[in-house]
Write a structure and sequence with these properties.
The chain is flat and about 95 Å long. The protein has 461 residues and is mostly beta strands. It has four domains: 108 residues, Sandwich (Immunoglobulin-like); 117 residues, Immunoglobulin-like (Sandwich), CATH 2.60.40; 88 residues, Immunoglobulin-like (Sandwich); 94 residues, Immunoglobulin-like. The protein is 5% helix and 49% strand. The N and C termini lie far apart (107 Å).
Length: 461
């Protein structure tokens, strides 16, 4: 037994020795050891799934100011990506450095509140205590804006022959050092088609000179323009196109400015004032009246019986600080509005729209304070402005919302009260003026119902 046991011990010792020789460092190749690597990904906030399925890792990322992003650390074994939920077993710890901030998580959401170049790095300690470090730059774009400078908006003293040329200038803000840019200039006699009429492109830091005659000889209706009594208005704007080093393109549009030519052989001033009643459902019901008043208080011209959504046109002597006052004499809740303008010689001035606003709340009153219990309860809701918006009417009896019917000025609701109830009616007009929040007391005495009120909501019910 001893001999056999001894033989077996020697046998196993020899086997172990041979195994040790076969697994020696001399026989292990680096290619046999799995290699852990890491990559940095930045994806949109609302992207779900593994980043490598749709996006690429990089050392340079481009994001917008205040854009919420997700920064991800993705690991790979022998260059094969590991799903995020399985990667934690391949390292001991990791941490991010973002500018001067340290973040201890595999991925995180972030919003850059300052433009410029931000440094980001991911440091990982592997299970073999080896250290991986990856770096990336995040280029946070400054928002680009385009501001038109000259001619000033609505400038109306341009020579229609334009013999000396007319400079168009603008300023583009927010072009970052890593971005290239080009500006395209647009101009048209018709505002609605301006962005279809490109004059050409130029460096965004330069201005352009508009040459050639500016007066339009034939108007949009095909009629010959009389430059003594009318002028030409040109609308223009600029589109700035920026591109970063990865080829991502962004475009931004300026506001639309306009300038107008002077009148020929006419030293008078023509003024056009578009007028409108905001939120009016029936502009034809408006009866606008008003006057042009000089800086000394003299009445230069009067007008009346003009519908809303019209243009008031007058020819006046050139002068400064002319005040135009407009009132609605029928829909009185619109009240009056005014503006002051300058009228240079030989010009036609078209102002911005002069809006009249309804700022008066609708009012309501029961059509009768005593009625048969079997009848509908009727209220008059009165609004002499934009009109009552039927879709915004709600009637509540105690805690029950009732079916309503509104026609013209009359609101009809069923009488569901059995003895004593509180009735609240909520209403607003098309200008979003809400009726006062009050309630009414409904009392039913057999065949007769009475309505008492209104009571303020703050009062004890």
């Amino acid at each position: 037994m001893r001999f056999q046991f001894y033989s077996l011990s020697v046998f196993f010792s020899i086997v172990i020795f041979l195994l040790m020789i076969s697994c020696s460092d001399a026989e292990i190749h680096s290619s046999d050891t799995p290699e852990l690597s890491q990559s940095i990904f930045i994806v949109p906030e609302n992207y779900f799934g593994e980043p490598y399925n749709q996006y690429s890792s990089s050392e340079n990322f481009y994001v917008d100011l205040n854009e919420k992003i997700r920064v991800c650390g993705i690991y790979a074994i022998d260059n094969k990506y590991i799903p995020t939920d399985q990667s934690a077993s391949f390292y001991n710890s990791n941490k991010w450095h973002l500018d001067n901030e340290e973040i201890n998580t595999n991925s995180f959401y972030y919003t850059f509140s300052k433009p410029g170049i931000h440094k980001i790095s991911l440091e990982t300690i592997g299970i073999l205590e080896d250290t991986l470090v990856s770096h990336a730059n995040v280029y946070v774009n400054t928002p680009v804006t385009v501001a038109l400078q000259s001619p000033a908006n609505h400038y109306n003293q341009v020579n229609g022959e334009n013999a000396a040329g007319l400079e168009l200038s603008w300023k583009v803000f927010g072009i970052d050092p890593w971005e290239s840019s080009v500006c395209i200039v647009y101009a048209s006699y018709y505002k609605e088609t301006i962005w279809e009429r490109a004059l050409g492109e130029t460096d965004c830091s330069e201005s352009v000179e508009l040459i050639g005659r500016l007066n339009l000889d034939i108007d949009e209706n095909g009629k010959e323009v009389n430059h003594t009594t009318d002028n030409s208005t040109i609308y223009w704007g600029v589109r700035a196109i920026t591109k970063n080093e990865r080829g991502n393109i962004e475009q931004n549009f300026s506001d639309v400015f306009s300038f107008s030519t002077i009148l020929e052989n006419n030293d008078k001033a023509i003024i056009e004032v578009p007028v409108a009643c905001m939120h009016s459902q029936y502009p034809e019901k408006s009866q606008l009246k008003g006057a042009f008043i000089s800086s000394t208080g003299d009445t230069l011209a009067k007008f009346s019986k003009i519908n809303a959504n019209s243009v008031i046109r007058k020819t006046l002597p050139p002068q400064s600080n002319v005040k135009i006052v407009v009132c609605d004499s029928v829909l009185t809740e619109y009240g009056c509005n005014s503006m002051t303008i300058n009228l240079p010689s030989s010009t036609k001035t078209t102002t911005d729209t002069l809006f009249l606003q309804d700022k008066i709340k609708p009012n309501m009153v029961p059509s009768a304070t005593e009625l048969p219990t079997s009848s509908l309860i009727n209220f008059f809701i009165l609004d002499n402005g934009s009109g009552v918006n039927a879709s915004k009417i709600t009637a509540i009896m105690n805690d029950d919302t009732l079916t309503t019917y509104f026609d013209e000025y009359t609101l009809s609701i069923p009488n569901t009260c059995k003895k004593e109830c509180n009735l609240s009616i909520y209403a607003e007009d098309y200008a979003k003026n809400k009726a006062p929040e009050v309630y009414w007391k409904i009392k039913v005495n057999k065949t007769i119902t009475t309505i008492d009120g209104p009571y303020a909501k703050t009062e004890d019910k």
